[in-house]
User: What shape does this take?
Amino acid sequence: MEGNPCESCNRPMHSEKNHGGGFAGNPYCDFCTDGDGNLNSFEEIRKGMVDFAVSRDDIGTREAQEVANQHLRKMPAWRHLYEAE
Ligand SMILES: [Zn+2]
Assistant: This one.
């Protein structure tokens, strides 16, 4: 069975342990949640995404922030933050 993508970062969750807290019913992945499966703050998740993009794609922080915003504004967990702008 194909797992649903995380509603915060769109990462595919293939097994229960990929879900936050190890709960299959958690719509967020283990990357986006703390050990208990609670969703981390928007700033933490965006920072993690920016740091990851900078190291992986060899781009500047500003460009990485732009990429992260493009991505996050489509996600169910965060799009309301962008709609408020
Ligand atoms: Zn996630």
